Amino acid sequence: MTSSKQISLSEIKTLSLSILSHVGYGRAHAAAITEMLYACQLDDCQSHGLFRLIMCAQTMLAGKVDGHALPHVAHSDNAVVKVDARGGISLLAFEKALPALVEKSRHHGIAAMAINNCFHFSALWPEVERLSAAGLAAMAMVPSHSWVAPAGGTRGSLGTNPLAFSWPRSGQDPFTFDFATSGFARGEIELYKRAGKPLPAGVAIDRDGNPTTDPQSALDGAMLTFGGYKGSALSVMIELLAGPLIDDMTSLESMEFAGGAAGAPYHGEIILAFDPVQFSNGKVAENDARAERLFADIIDQGARLPSQRRFAARARNLKRGYVEIPEALYNELLSLRDD
Amino acid sequence: MTSSKQISLSEIKTLSLSILSHVGYGRAHAAAITEMLYACQLDDCQSHGLFRLIMCAQTMLAGKVDGHALPHVAHSDNAVVKVDARGGISLLAFEKALPALVEKSRHHGIAAMAINNCFHFSALWPEVERLSAAGLAAMAMVPSHSWVAPAGGTRGSLGTNPLAFSWPRSGQDPFTFDFATSGFARGEIELYKRAGKPLPAGVAIDRDGNPTTDPQSALDGAMLTFGGYKGSALSVMIELLAGPLIDDMTSLESMEFAGGAAGAPYHGEIILAFDPVQFSNGKVAENDARAERLFADIIDQGARLPSQRRFAARARNLKRGYVEIPEALYNELLSLRDD
């Protein structure tokens, strides 16, 4: 049994800031990364919370990330915000370009943010929830490394390529999902490996293209997409929109660029935002009611909306004032700071 | 064994036009519908080819569609083209608004078309391929009727909610997919029923929420989404973007509106278009090469790109000058015209 450690909400931030600063991230990057880790840890997203500080440290150790890079937001009159992360972590670039994306969405009805030249390790739901908090619907996509075989294939060509979406709901938590188009998230496989647990069947193949449930064989071989050929097609779409469309790397290229080093992949990201006011000619309230009726019909039959468990964890952790992480992880984090 | 009937390429069009005219569609609608049916039949998409003339006739018989409706394209300075189909079939509205969508995409970098108040029965790939033929990447989504249960549910709340995507490829067929987020397309279940074949396991539940492979029980009960909770989440996203976002019906509302009548569902549609020139700052050729390398890596390992079979059918049928449809369907189509 894994023993766990209680961490107060304020300690999440101080611990994260101190580790990030110690391993070489400047103040602005450390703050942007910490906000993301805090959001995930608050919601009990163990795979994208404080656990990711290990990857942040590895990424710095690999020597390619710039912990002090100043993102550059290009001026444009069109509906596309291009932001160059200049070799830093994606999150500060997102922060810097967010006001322009919100403004462009409200002005043009639909707009996109393209982040280039960034290291990426984070969940996408906190980003789309920033947009739904501003009353916009939003979608986000990133490639990763070519760990995932296409349907009918035998080796990795595609990234884990997550798709996230958030829809604003008046006076309550948004409708949000954020899923990897691989059957499993890469981070989850790493957690299974750390826990010594076998994977479910059907999520991975080994180095020879045969099905496997061993986490290490899966990490050495390839993961499979969810949903067979449909999930595979969706994953290719994400490669194209978050890669070649925006003049950035595919997961194949990103993997080559890393050259076997551990740490966060280097590539691009695309975020789309939709303004319900413009799309509905101002009829937001009556269309919100339509959406609410759909949500109610789903819940009434005993099904869940995505993220309900996460919102429940958030409410509980805010109330009790602490989160729990595995004690072994906590000790590993302390060793990162005290190196 | 089903005997089949050869139909020359020109007869596809004359047969379709004569039936549509006979059952009550005006010239402009009949032409737009025929172009779509021709495109599908040429590619051996049996479920969305001439077979759909039966649904066009049923839709007219149900008495709600306007076979002479003139779509209205609203003027806007933003990146959203709103087109009101005014109770007609969606296809003529798409045709009328397409030039504005292409122009807005090139101007703003990203743009959307929202079709309102339309009857919809068609495949989406011909629409996204019109955009990829213009050098744009494109995505299309529609709701339908609430035939599909959400993950963990027992009854229909969602439509079959297809997602289509096309990516332009220089000098060759585009990368295109068009899949229902239900495990099966509704039209496929109808074809299984006509052929007296059982469905694969895992695509439907009966009226009591139990798994079934009987096509009629599936039609009476509910279909399931592909890919479990992820496919279900994606389907909800499509409901929201192609419904409440654009001030139009969800699949639940559309089903109620039909009041049990056969024929095409009435709702909206959303199409997104992305200009690679603007997103890549003009670096289209080098980013096309990135995409081509990904496609080559997928094909090299023996996997298929989506739509390869369709493109092969198109090449063969264009060369031989005819398509084949079941003889029973051909006779049924003749009876529609000779009623």
UniProtKB/TrEMBL annotation, chains A, B:
One GO molecular-function entry: oxidoreductase activity
Source superkingdom: Bacteria
Documented EC number(s): 1.1.1.338
Signal peptide feature range: none
Enzyme class: oxidoreductase
Keyword Translocase in annotation: no
Gene expressing this chain: comC_2
A Pfam short name: Ldh_2
Record's protein name: (2R)-3-sulfolactate dehydrogenase (NADP(+))
UniProt keyword annotation of RNA-binding present: no
Keywords: Oxidoreductase
UniProt similarity note: Belongs to the LDH2/MDH2 oxidoreductase family.
